[in-house]
Amino acid sequence: MKRRRVIQALAASCLGGVRAAERLEAFGIDYVLASALYGDLSLDEVVPELARAGVLGLDIWGKPHGTQREELDQMGVDSFADLLRKHGAKLHVSTRYPLGPFGLRDEMAVLKRLGGKILVCGATGPKDPEGGAAKRAVRGFLEKMEPHADAAADHGLVIAIENHAGQLLSRPDSIRYFAEFNRHPALGIAFAPHHLHRQVDEIPGLISALGDKNLPFIYFQEHGVGSKKKVEKEIELEQLPGRGKLDYVPILQALRDINFTGVAEIFMHPTPRGVPMLGDAGAITDKINESKQYLDACLAKTS
User: What angle do CA 255, 93, 33 make, to 5 degrees?
Assistant: First the structure.
């Protein structure tokens, strides 16, 4: 009997290894589409682009980056749900920086009604802490976030906090402490490599430290001067994957190594904020698809 159990355990272990290998072999990235890239274009123009972009769903943004979240309020949840159904589309993310991490309760109810999964916002606390200050601040922030994460879990949602420049999670120390101290399954990081442009070499290691459980969302955006000042359009577009200097192969390798199951968003900031990335919705989606092709080529170089 002991011998049989050993053989069964070994067989199960081997089968588990095979299944793990199959999952890794089939590894891919699920994308969402940021309405902010379409600026002030209407939801009637943006929602049909989800199919052309081949994404999992929409990430809806409000002012100053886009006008679609305000339009949702104007048209009503039921009418927006009808629009999504008409185009076979889904809402997956609501990005709500103006609400802050402690002001998301009402948005949770809206997102749940629409079948969404992730709320993205920024953090509160000291600016750019490092070392012991980062450790204390991250611990304190996570304690304050616990009831809000509980509420998100009750709605079947996850709150993703961006590692935004000039905020609590802007430096590698804070990100690592978040990975160490966060225990809530409904709380994670919206990982933004473009805010780590001075620590590019640390990005893969930070992804590894966070692991899949702390990483529900990642931006594919490169730091660029066009995000803050008016430049020629081709320079502004260098924020998109494949058009700048950032090598995405190590980033995608790190995501593959943690068997990333979250969502990714190809992103950039038009200048001024709130204008469409390009002149019409179709042209914007074409550029997003070009970046997806580049990222697919990078992913093919991972193992």
Answer: 70
